Amino acid sequence: MFSRAYRAAITLPPLLWVAVFLLVPYALLFCYSFWSVSPAQTIVHAWTLDNYRDLFRVNVYLQTLFRSMWIAARVMLFSLLLGYPLAYYLSFHAGVRKELFYQLVIIPLWVSYLVRAYAWKTILGSDGVLNTLLQYVHLTQHPLDFLLYSPFAVVLTLTHIYTPFAFLPIYASLEHIPRNLVEASHDLGASPVQTFWRVIFPLSIPGVLAGATFAFVLSLGDFLAPLLLGGPSGIMISNIVVSLFGAAYNWPLGAAISLCMLLLVLALIYLSESLEKKWSFR
Amino acid sequence: MATSTEPTFSRSPNSGTQPLLSIRKVAKSFGKNVVLRDISLAIAEGEFLTILGESGSGKTTLLRIIAGFESATSGEIWMEDERLDVLPPYRRRVNTVFQHYALFPHLTVEENVGYGLRVAKLPREEVASRVEQALAMVKMTAFAKSKPAKISGGQQQRIALARALVNRPRLLLLDEPLSALDANLRRQMQVELKSLQREVGISFVFVTHDQEEAMVMSDRIALLRRGELEQIASPREIYGQPATAYTAQFIGHTNLLQGEVKGGVVRCHSLDWPVGLPDGPVLFSLRPENLRIVDLAVGSAGVNVVRFRGRVCHQAFHGSTELLQVECEDGLKLSIRTATRENWNGDLELEFAPEDAVAVRQSEERT
User: Fold this and answer.
1) Residues whose CB is less than 8 angstroms from the CB of residue B137 and which lie 6 or more positions away in sequence, other chains included
2) B12 has pLDDT over 50
3) Which of B40, B158, B272, B276 has the most CB atoms less than 10 A away?
4) Which of A236-250, B35-49, B54-68, B95-109 shows the lowest mean pLDDT across its residues?
5) Cβ–Cβ of A203/B67 closer than 8 Å?
6) How much is the pLDDT for B304?
7) Is B139's pLDDT higher than 60?
8) Is B367 on the interface with A (CB under 8 A)?
9) Which of B95, B98, B119 lies nearest to residue A180, judging by beta carbons?
10) Which residues sit opposite B79 in a β-bridge?
11) What ipTM was reported for this prediction?
């Protein structure tokens, strides 16, 4: 078929790309996670498990990791709660406006992440749009300070940013449901509600799993929203990693935390994919 | 146009002749596109009615209106004394076998069959026993635990049938259910379906574009053409006494002869025969098997026959019969079905009985 040289020529570039930009960095990260930092702020290239021990012994790391997972779980839940009805409406009831609504959901993805995060800052701040409005209509006397610089602000912002990522796979899976199955269900006496729970929802589970995975994994690794809107109580694990690689200058510990997160995420993706397989029938 | 089977519109409850389903002046348009025009027909209890038509004739739309997946633009549908067209599909005692079966892929065969009973919240034991019976009826008990993707098209077909019949509907709608099967299996399923229908005694409305299938299975055939009912009659009647030229051509094979009646005699090319029709132009349908080749040694079959000569110009072998194209001296071309024989050729002496030439209406052309 194709000559050896040709096959080598087309497979080599992607292989190189993966090697240089993925495998080598991960290998370095792996090595760093077993090294340490000397009091003189130099990297000591001697194998040690101290970083992993610290990770599990110093409360703040695990606490922050759990808080991050809790924030990510809430973002996942709210993204699904917003994304699923939206996807359902678009797929089954939007009619001729389907294309328009679809574009409206997609357009925010073209806007810079930073702009959207800053937008929430101006909305939620003590002089922000929301507080000004609430005081103007005399619902409150003083600005509500839990709105900004809190886990609430982080969850709200991340939900806004990641809902389209939950929406898209759900929408795709709903679009793939043959409409004659819905008709068959009605034909057999099932009401629209029964049809939803017995036919539509089970067949959309692969999309829900994919959407949930997107929302959870993307929020878990987020560091800009907590940085801009989280305040001290809304710090997430990635902020710690950033500071360990920056000001704190503890690359080995940062590498250890990063690798743990990587394993966590890979396990989640694996779990989600095997569940998706179980729930797809074609 | 319908001969012996005008739809009856009686609304009186307990008249014995009340049809199970009456479709009354149903019309349907999608925007400017008129799909059905003024359809009225009645379906009797236990009847096997086929809605026959080519693609675009509106036959599937009519079925979907009965099932409730589409609503009619105007007209009404009644099931005995209940108005059906105002009910959502899930409240109609009508079940459908879909063209591509529409089995639920996430449910097993037995869960598919039991679906209607479970949504109706019947007791568990009753669901189980009725599902078992239904699977036995279509000989699919062995596949109860399989997923639809694991069984063949013919088997899916049976499951779709069992899933619909297990609910004991008053009326079963079948939307070209055999069109996805290969020819052999299809003929076998035609026979099975027909005997199943007799066994359960439920009225079937069967949609197909295949006139042969319609002839084999139906008690009556309703022929649709461009959204209008062309003729509704039993297979024998619709074949033997087609009302229109379109019916005559669509169902079976025919010769159309344009004649002119004058004083009780029709003239068509150089042929003439007596008819009981008023003067004017008349179109006749003459089936190829009603034309006989006269064996000069034996002689004519009867006295009142129309006799003429023709030359064989084409011959096509059809297995059990031979279809000849014959051209007469005056340019008239006719198809003749005859016994098989290699090399029909030369001049033939031909005849037909005048009563076999059926006067048909010219089907109006509509744009």
Assistant:
1) B162, B165, B196
2) no
3) B158
4) A236-250
5) no
6) 81
7) yes
8) no
9) B98
10) B21, B82
11) 0.84
Q: Which residue range forms the structural domain that includes residue B156?
A: 21-248
How confident is the model at residue B16, as a pLDDT?
Answer: 53
A194 vs B119: CB contact, 8 Å cut-off? Answer: yes
* B269 & B147 share domain: no
- With CB atoms and an 8 Å threshold, state whether B119 touches A180: no
Q: Is it the case that residue A19 has pLDDT exceeding 60? A: yes
Architecture of domain A59-278: Orthogonal Bundle (1.10)
Q: CB of B90 within 8 Å of any CB in chain A? A: yes
Please check whether residue B332 touches A, CB under 8 A.
no
B3, part of any domain: no
Whether residue B351 has pLDDT greater than 60 = yes
Question: For position B239, which CATH number holds?
Answer: 3.40.50.300
Instruction: Mark which residues 40-59 of B lie under 8 Å from A by CB.
Output: none
Q: What secondary structure, in 3-state letters, does chain B show?
A: CCCCCCCCCCCCCCCCCCCCEEEEEEEEEECCEEEEEEEEEEECCCCEEEEECCCCCCHHHHHHHHHCCCCCCEEEEEECCEECCCCCHHHCCEEEECCCCCCCCCCCHHHHHHHHHHHCCCCHHHHHHHHHHHHHHCCCHHHCCCCHHHCCHHHHHHHHHHHHHCCCCCEEEEECCCCCCCHHHHHHHHHHHHHHHHHHCCEEEEEECCHHHHHHHCCEEEEEECCEEEEEECHHHHHHCCCEHHHHHHCCCCEEEEEEEECCEEEECCEEEECCCCCEEEEEEECHHHCEECCCCCCCCCCCCEEEEEEEEEEEECCCCEEEEEEECCCCEEEEEECCCCCCCCEEEEEECHHHCEEEECCCCCC
A188 vs B: CB within 8 A = yes
Q: Do residue B79 and residue B141 come from a single domain?
A: yes
**Is A246 in CB contact (< 8 Å) with chain B?**
no
Q: Which of A181, A191, A202 sits opposite B102 (nearest CB)?
A: A181
Q: Does A110 touch chain B (CB under 8 A)?
A: no
Q: Which residues of A touch B102 (CB under 8 A)?
A: 178, 180-181, 183-184
